[in-house]
Amino acid sequence: MTKRGKFIVFEGGDAAGKSTQAKLFAEKINAFLTREPGGTKLGEKIRSLLLESDEVLLMPKAELFLMAAARAQHVKEVIEPALEQGRNVVCDRYSASTIAYQGFGRRLPIDEVEEVVSFASYGLEPDIYVLLDISLEIAGERKPLADDRIEGEGHAFHERVLEGFRRLASDNPAAWVVIDGTGGVSEIAERINRLVQPRLGV
Ligand code: TMP
Known about the structure:
By secondary structure, the protein is α/β, with parallel strands linked by helices.
């Protein structure tokens, strides 16, 4: 029987450097790299609708269900089959982003968001969440936060999102590794390799 792959998720606020680090880590462990919202044809179309559109008015619950729809497709079409075939999968954002952004950021009730998230993901949880933790000040220095519809939200919104991630990580230390996201790309990559690889056994 094929040994099931490991599922590793990178999370963090905007401009935390997680896409760069997710890519480097996937190369390091020879994993399949994917992202949310996205990762499938449908998911990428939903992503454009969610992030690029300023003509379409999106209410918080509509935003939540579009994130959930992209995830439901992604889990069944891509992530679950890859894990079953024994591939390790690295995903740039997953369920914790929905709790942090739609729950903490948009202030939808957290328990209700959690129910939607669990339903959309068929209950699939990552083996490990990697939180790249940087302050909003450093994020702002790296990149002005106005590239898309969600990034363009104000400072208070992004503060709540960051608080959401930190709370999720501190509530469940067995599932999360928190990485100091300050410093250079290779320095951060080194931290991730040192702390994450031994916990995964990959
Ligand atoms: P990215 O630019 O980091 O790839 O993420 C796209 C944006 O989508 C980012 O601002 C976070 C947001 N997002 C949510 O609001 N909820 C979610 O569930 C996911 C996966 C992303």
